[in-house]
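REQUEST ID: PR-0412
SUBMITTED BY: lab tech R.K.
PRIORITY: routine
TASK: structure prediction, single protein chain
INPUT:
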Amino acid sequence: MQHSRLRRAYVPSRFGQLHVRIAEPEAVPVAPPLVCFHQTPSHGGDWDAVLALMSRDRWVIAPDTPGYGQSDAPPEPASLEALAAALSEGLEVLAADEGFALTRYDAMGHHTGSVLAAELARHDSRVRHLVFCSLPAFGEAARQDMLRGIDGMFPPVDGSLARAEQLHAFQSSFADRRLDGAQRQVAMAECLRLGERMDWGYCAVFDYDLIAVLSALPHRALILNSEDDLNAVTGEAAGLLERGIYRELEGCGHGFLAFADEAFAGDLRAFLDGH
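STATUS: complete
OUTPUT:
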């Protein structure tokens, strides 16, 4: 989906340059900005369709998490808290540069992005409403098991095709069926170009107690559960949010955001604006 008002910028953060997609509203904004955080391993381009649709009446921002997309990487794997802080720093600079207010804003995330949105909401009283597209809310024992097994999640980066073959198998199981071959190949290439850094975002998520954070959040939250590898855990975690609204996304898998349409945007806008 093309959008003539979609631009890109770099802003500073504690880890270097942060790459950000910006969708400027078509008219005077009537709603707070919407900030969208992507999954691991991917980039803010996942949100292009959402940016185009939602920016009719608000600013919409989609940063690349440090170490992913075109954002500079930390010198070593960073905590979820540090990644969220870097994103917050970049947003402050961006708002000043672009001239929009961050006195209130909404946060939306997908997989790892949902955790980043929750962490921002935990510390930043300006976060108004939350939208979670899947929630990696694993219990303590499961998280520790995954942390211990992080080195075995994917084949080593050794120049062979083993990692590519595993990524292809994962796509075959959980990718949205509407994605064509070219889209799947581009997504796989994005994962492979990160090398060993591909896993860093998983380390941050597995080391973060999302269950405890969700249980304490007072925000209105929309939980969208797609048919992917987090389907079961998202369904269980939805009940943790005191003011959560839960919806199943039938037939949607990894990559479904590329197919966001007027109906999706209408539902999202209705939730965010309280209609």
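NOTES: DSSP finds ten helices and eight strands in the chain.
REVIEWED BY: pending
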